[in-house]
Amino acid sequence: MSTRCTLTVFDSEQAFTIYRQSDGYPDTEHGVLAGLRGALSYAWPLPRFEPDEFAAAIVAAWKKPAQSHTAFESTYTSQGGNIRLINGNRDSVGDSAFHYDITRDKRALRVTVFKSIEGNGDSRSWKRVKSILLRAKDQPTPPIEQHEEAES
Question: b/e per residue, 36-75, with b = 16+ CB within 10 A?
């Protein structure tokens, strides 16, 4: 079973929510916190932070090209829908196990992790698990492409 999650990237003026269909655990090799470190290379250098731009960086880093899989003696192609923007908040997806709030905290990004606690019927609540800071030192230096000048 896939571990679904939502992430909300926000400041005092804007909020953007992302849905991730699998690998929603915080601390696994391909989990959300490792993925957010990878998304830093698609974003403005910290401390600059704009919620719409960082949400786009997450989507750019996490979208996967089409992949061929074989299961139960059939081959199929998966593409696309694992990562998407949603119109809503963490409660808009009924089966998400984790939620991540991402916002600026001085010169870093604060990521707060919440775990879904099932309630009675359709109700549920969220338990804060932990909070971490992603700092400029966590941001990889992007490779700079060299372009040769054309001779005139």
Answer: beebbebbeebeebbbeebbbbbbebbeeeeeeeeeeeee
In a domain, 148, yes or no: no
Question: How far does Cα 52 stand from its chain's mean position?
Answer: 13
Summarised one tens digit per residue, pLDDT across range 85-122 is 999 888 888 889 999 999 999 999 999 999 998 765 56
Host domain of residue 129 = 5-66+74-138
Q: In whole angstroms, give the CA distance from residue 50 to residue 4.
A: 25
User: pLDDT tens for residues 43-58?
Assistant: 999 999 999 999 999 9
Give the count of domains, the chain: 1
Tell me the C-alpha distance between 143 and 152, whole Å.
Answer: 28
Count of C-beta atoms within a 10 Å radius of residue 19: 20
Report if residue 104 sits inside a domain: yes
Quick one: pLDDT at residue 123? 67
Q: Rounded distance, CA 32 to CA 41, Å?
A: 15
CA distance 68 to 126: 36
Q: What is the pTM of this model?
A: 0.82
Distance CA 20, CA 18 (A): 7
Helix (H, G, I), strand (E, B) or coil at 126: strand
